[in-house]
């Protein structure tokens, strides 16, 4: 069964059209109404979709989690996620499905940047590229658009991926889980429209929040470069400063207490980072062995 899943929040103006177009390419459409204050849920039902409603707004990731759970309950062979704000064109759904089936991959991402013709606003493009570069560091593959919500998942991917992030960083979390599970991935170029962009979030703090969450996931997967290397550098720096303090004190009997405190602080922080790296690395190794 081909299932289209749509996370939606206050999208009464456009949701009906998205559902009707999506039904042309799917056996069923499920909408997760994430606590909308308008008629999103009502219009979605009238347009032919099954609606799962959150009592209050929980975030984009929470809607994606609900939709993954729904896809597993429906025993779907293919799940397509498409945003409910009208930015994605449902008529491009066959492109993702055909790529998934013809190339026998587990996940297909619709990328705004793959063909180099994106009309994405400059500030948004720069932010997405920074987040994507960070995400690529943690994955075993490289993508051009880590934040695209227009994706197709195979049955294997649906069963394997269990997101936990309730915010926008869920897109990156899913990428890292695709990598961790050894699932195959492909990208296809898509067009996108920002004419119905109704986001009320300030792009700067929003982008920083997504980047920080991305770094959190990657730091757990790669604790040695994230914690171990900086920790070792701080331990070495603290040791050098401590040696210099002793050298000055023994030869000149001058106690540079500021240098001493700095040396102790650097050494302690470095040690904590190194211990953190070892613990996380050990936990990650155990988890991989169990899987």
UniProtKB/TrEMBL annotation:
Residues 4-160 form the Glycosyltransferase 2-like domain. One of its GO terms (molecular function) is transferase activity. CDD domains: DPM_DPG-synthase_like. The chain crosses the membrane at residues 226-246, 252-281. Keywords: Membrane, Transferase, Transmembrane, Transmembrane helix. InterPro entries: Glyco_trans_2-like (IPR001173), Glycosyltransferase_2 (IPR050256), Nucleotide-diphossugar_trans (IPR029044). This is Glycosyltransferase, cell wall synthesis-related.
């Amino acid at each position: 069964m081909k299932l289209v899943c749509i996370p939606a929040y206050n999208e009464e103006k456009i949701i009906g059209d998205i559902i009707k177009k999506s039904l042309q390419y799917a056996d069923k459409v499920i909408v997760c109404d994430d606590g909308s204050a308008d008629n999103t849920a009502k219009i979605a039902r009238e347009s032919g979709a099954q609606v799962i409603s959150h009592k209050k707004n929980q975030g984009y990731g929470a809607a994606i989690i609900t939709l993954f759970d729904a896809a597993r309950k429906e025993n779907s062979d293919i799940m397509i996620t498409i945003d409910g704000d009208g930015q994605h064109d449902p008529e491009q759904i066959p492109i993702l499905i055909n790529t998934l089936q013809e190339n026998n991959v587990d996940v297909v991402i619709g990328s705004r940047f793959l063909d180099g013709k994106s009309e994405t606003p400059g500030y948004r493009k720069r932010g997405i590229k920074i987040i994507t570069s960070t995400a690529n560091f943690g994955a075993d593959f490289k993508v051009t658009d880590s934040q695209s919500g227009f994706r197709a998942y195979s049955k294997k991917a649906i069963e394997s991926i269990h997101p936990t992030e309730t915010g926008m960083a869920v897109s990156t979390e899913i990428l890292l889980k695709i990598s961790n599970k050894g699932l195959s991935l492909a990208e296809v170029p898509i067009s996108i429209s920002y004419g119905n962009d109704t986001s009320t979030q300030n792009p700067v703090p929003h982008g920083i929040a997504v980047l920080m969450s991305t770094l959190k996931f990657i730091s757990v997967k790669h604790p040695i470069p994230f914690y171990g290397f900086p920790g070792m550098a701080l331990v070495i720096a603290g040791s050098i400063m401590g040696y210099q303090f002793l050298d000055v004190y023994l030869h000149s009997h001058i106690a540079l207490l500021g240098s001493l405190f700095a040396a102790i602080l650097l050494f302690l922080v470095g040690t904590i980072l190194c211990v953190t790296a070892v613990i996380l690395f050990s936990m990650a190794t155990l988890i991989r062995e169990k899987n």
